[in-house]
Amino acid sequence: MAVGLPENVFVTKLDAAANWARSNSLWPMPFATACCGIELMATASSRHDIARFGAEVMRFSPRQCDLLIVAGRVAMKMLPVLQRIWLQMPEPKWCISMGACACTGGVFDTYAVVQGVDRFIPVDMYVPGCPPRPEQLIAAVMEMQEKIKRTGTITGKEFAQRTAATGPQPFDVDELRRRREVTPVPGLEIYGQPTVQR
Known about the structure:
33% of the residues lie in helices and 9% in strands.
């Protein structure tokens, strides 16, 4: 060890190297269910070329991915599938909610559509729009890369605290009823429904 340098300098350098590698080699798992999926596909085309940012390796196997991109509306029947995919992805992992439908339910304010996926899985980045342009998704990937460089550690200890979905509390009586009727997915007990204070 160099004289006069504290031990945590080396750990900090290792964290920086790991964060640089993770941020420049994102493997997205596309969960495209509607028109936002077309914009997601356009992002990978030669015109927009998401490969410039190291995120062109789109895999449809969650065990090989570290970035979940939820593009489009999610129906209540699809929610257990989305949660199972999230659970199958290895840590460290991140999530982008793309489009108004994935972020807030969009124009589909109905009992059958999830009013924001952040109520059921943790979301790191939101891309607004209906549908958002490919440039917006690329901007979100760049912001995600910066976030990974700032917050990551080589041991992944920052993910130990990620034990609950981070979305807003339910406020509608119908939404509370729908959440009670959702069949829980085994293994997702850590993402339990938040308690509502009346």
